[in-house]
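On clarity, I found the account of how folds are encoded harder to follow than it need be. Since the whole study asks how a given chain folds, the encoding of that fold should be made plain. The format is easy to grasp once an entry is in front of the reader. For illustration, here is how one protein appears when written out as sequence plus structure tokens.
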Amino acid sequence: VNLLIDIQAKIQSGKGKGYERWAAVFNLKEAAKTLNFLTEQGVTDYDELLAQTKEAGETFDALSARIKQLEGRMAQTAQLKMHIINYSKTKDVYAAYKKSGKKEAFLNEHKEEIKKHETAKAAFEALKGKPIPKVAQLSKEYASLLAEKKEAYEEFKQARKTMVEYQTAKDNVDRILGTVPLEKE
């Protein structure tokens, strides 16, 4: 189902009689598609159409928020995993840095490793006393979050399609009934 075309506005912008004829046929076909869609969905009155459109939008918004929440948790998990790995890789260099008498020279030589180690320590302190999880545990959590996201994304795509169909049908009904002026488009 596509939106109906504002024929009068197109004619005023310079379109000819051929376009007018095509647009009239197009609008009739789209009105028929809209009616078929509403019949298939069992929508019999305008209030029901409004309710279905609103419900489809709310479902879409809820799924969108859930996917964003999952993506945020996945990013946190991946970042914590990276910090744990960096900490274990740079632990020896950092210990040598703390023991060295010439800290400036050692710091200049191993700046990147020391920075990674301190960043990882800061991330662990941000956990505020919670135990640091194991990398395998984080990998398992990430995999489960990814699976949940894929599942939610399939629902999201279907909800988006449904929302667009209902919104387009509602807009077409509004134009057919004349409740929304075409110029507002």
About this structure: The chain has a mean pLDDT of 89.
